[in-house]
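Email to the structure team, subject: HPPR reductase model.

Hi all, the expression group asked for a predicted structure before they design truncation constructs. Nothing fancy, just the tokens so they can compare against earlier work. One-line instruction: predict HPPR reductase, return tokens.
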Amino acid sequence: MAEDLPGVLILDIGGTHGVLENLAVLLKKHFHLIIMKEFLENKKEMGKKIQSIFVFEGRPTIDRELLESLPNLKVIANSGVGVDHLDLKMISNFGVKVTNTPQAVADPTADMGMALMLASARRLVEGNVLHFPGS
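Reply from the structure team: attached below.
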């Protein structure tokens, strides 16, 4: 069944730099996940199966060598707001589209900004240190 799904290249599942395990479960419903180690062990065969790359926390690194080894690549999906870490001109020269998630962290960022402003205005950190020394 997984072989019938479009192949997506990811760095790894779990660990320090891999896709979060819960996210991998969701991705597996729609894609055949191919981790970088599996791809590197058999570039020629695996390269043909990969139609997408899922970039999580800036990994895997997208360079010319990688793009040249993926003849059926159609899209690079970046799981974040910015695409500054991607060479968009080079990628587009390969006829590959790039996507991102521009609103993914808008609400949490606003919440954190408000929390920091309130903590600063009410001197919460200083009050915590004065009332609970050593914490």
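The longest strand covers residues 50-55. The radius of gyration is 20 Å. Ping us if the truncation boundaries need rechecking.
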